[in-house]
Amino acid sequence: GDDSPLNPSGNLIVNNIQQLYESKRTEWTPESIVDDILGRKPQKDLTKSPEALIDKIKKLDNLMVITDEAHHVHDEDLQWHKTLMSIHKALPNGIDFWLDFSATPKTQTGTYYPWIIVDYPLAQAIEDRIVKVPLIVHRIDKKDPENVSKDNVIQKYGDWITASLERWKEHYEVYSTVGKKPVLFIMAEKNDYADRIAEAIRKRKDLGFKNPEEEIMVIHVKSKGEGETEIKITEKDLPKLRELARKIDEPDNKVKIIVSNLILREGWDVQNVSIVLGLRPFTSRAQILPEQAVGRGLRLMSGISPDHTQTLEVMGTEAFENFVRELEKEGVGINTTKTPPPLPITIAPEKSRLVYDIEIPHTEFRFSRNYKKIETLDLSKIPSLYSSDKLEEEKKILLKMEFPVTETEVHQVAIDVTSLPSGRELVSYIVREVMKRARLTCEFNNLYPIVERYILEKCFETRIKDIENEKLRKNLNDISIQDAIIDILARVTGEISIETKTEVVKLDSFKLSSIPPFTWRRKHLRCKKTVFNFVAVYNDFEAKFARFLDEADDIERFSALADKFSIDYLSSRGAIRLYYPDFIAVQKIGKKKVFWIIETKGREYEDTDRKDDAIKRWCEDITKQTGQEWKYLKVMQADFEASRNLKNFAELVSERTR
């Protein structure tokens, strides 16, 4: 903010880099012809220099630059780098001396910069007791949850949240004896998740919070866009974040827990963070270094005797733990590219290719739902999942603490699950997940009593009187038990409510040439025997197979189907799903034509057999109703690539049907 002129030498400029950006220059546009003639009005404050600071700096003869958080400077896309390089080019001899300081002197791929002259590694800093000792708190008996959403984030991450809160309570008790307030920092993956987690913690009565709204803070962060690393704080939260960063360590500050998708990066001079809970994935694509994720939490709390060892407990999912363990790997980089993906193309039928058009029958669905059948579900025919002994098992969260530098185990602890959702909340969650997994659209109220009755009467091979039974709630709070119940009930409710047509009826048909132009961002190739300008494929194998069809002397016409044709099938989980085959081809055998639906497979996945059966039945029904011959063929990649010198489609069929 100092507008005084610079001396020819002896200037010390301490400034934020943003104040030097070229964009800080005030643009001026004349508002009238008089303004255009007379020019810009003189400024009212005559003591203020009309010259921008960056322009003053560019007139100096010599310049030394010292940068902090310098790992950002060498990204050519950032304004910071562009500004310094513009100064370098403007000076007669360029910047004379440039000195970088950074706690993370690495590229975003983790490779150290080659111009490092002094390195002070984390292990040495820990030994010298100038940072906290990081401890990885590992959940012994828990795998990372899958299919996390805002609706189930509390159920999926419930044990991790409970474990972190129990550790924080112990920290709070210990640090209170030396007049300090430890802070728990929870990194969520999304803003919605952060809101749900904070809401759940605020409802807990065992934390002793007097004003949960003030003591648990949520900070929302929005990203600049996919593939970019810089983050933006929303305008609403920026003043709050600045206040937080400045005062959170003060004794009278009430914030004890922060929940955000923000990571502890530059600008967070917070000393009191003693536990970091990571509930978000970190990958090389995210361009975040382990030091950036937890480094700020390593700062020592002031006013504590060096006789005491301060620790930073880092806990979370296995993916987060593995990420943090990278702290001591040096010089290992993964090359990344900032080359944008290829531009999308438009795929469309061409009038000159109508000779290769194919007409495909459109049929009714084979499967439908009759939700009244769910009411007839016989619970006695659904097997029990657990013995009654399961209810007597202790449900504890087992934690193991390790020093990551030497991978030494420091301590183990078993935490009781003291805060449990109500039985009705747990059953409600299970009901919603059953409906989602089986794709049921029935009324929640119709399914809830069936699920509750199964849990109380059958699931544990014993009758339980009350859904609020504490032992039962501890079991229902276990993700593995939840998943087992959801899986079996989704399957049986899905199957009992299904009504199946023995034969699907052809309603009408459509020609490939009637498909409107569509955008395609994946692989594509030019072929002759198709009505489209390009063949849309998903991978190299499909491209190779499309080329084979185009060159086979007995294939008259063909097309990749992309997502333009589908039939329904019943999944192993009881859900009605759609199956999208890969290709359609017309084979000429003498005067006869055979219509083939073709699936190419690299490997088999769940429900592949059900899709096969569904399309085979569809082909049989259409053949019967139209008089045309429709067949199905599945081509495995390994088999196709093992075949040599296939001249036509008939040879391929012969090999596959031996």
From TrEMBL:
Pfam families: RE_endonuc
GO molecular function: type III site-specific deoxyribonuclease activity
Listed InterPro entries: Helicase_Restrict-Modif_Enz, P-loop_NTPase, RE_endonuc_C
Sequence ranges assigned to domain Type III restriction enzyme C-terminal endonuclease in this UniProt record: 528-619
Protein species of origin: Desulfurella multipotens
Protein name: Type III restriction enzyme
Coiled coil: none
Entry GO CC: cytosol
